[in-house]
Write a structure and sequence with these properties.
The structure is a single chain. A hairpin with a 2-residue loop joins strand 1 and strand 2. The chain is built from three helices and five strands; from the N terminus they run βββββααα. Strands 1-2-3-5-4 form a five-stranded mixed β-sheet, covered by helices on one side. It is elongated and about 80 Å long.
């Protein structure tokens, strides 16, 4: 949603959809939901660049600019909306996890250090 105000444009961006991502465990491709809101303000100014304050991103654009491509901003918002850990929870993924799960056995303690374990 674009709201034009005196001297700046306010964009309220709502992302709602799905993205194909790779599982961090088994590397299979699966779909994950994306649902997030962002706010972007475009302001005409002589100094061009970005400024982030809190949850609002402020971008300065040239005074004679009459078009702005939000493609790069949308890509960044989609990437920020993805979960940090992408796990597919499929049977194959669980099987791989069980197969590579280490079986820890009690390690033999070096006799030189065995006396230190009694100091607890």
């Amino acid at each position: 949603m674009l709201d034009k105000k005196g001297g700046f444009y306010e964009l309220d961006i709502h992302l709602d959809g799905e993205a194909n991502v790779s599982c961090d465990r088994c590397l299979d491709i699966f779909k994950t939901d994306i649902n997030n809101n962002f706010r972007l303000i475009l302001k005409h100014s002589e100094k061009e660049g970005d400024h982030i304050q809190g949850d609002v991103e402020l971008k300065f654009i040239a005074p004679d600019c009459n078009q702005y491509n939000i493609g790069q901003d949308l890509l960044e918002y989609v990437l920020l909306s993805l979960p940090m850990r992408k796990i597919c929870n499929s049977a194959k993924c669980a099987d791989n996890l069980e197969r590579f799960k280490g079986t820890s056995k009690k390690q033999d303690i070096d006799p030189r250090w065995e006396a230190l374990t009694n100091l607890k």
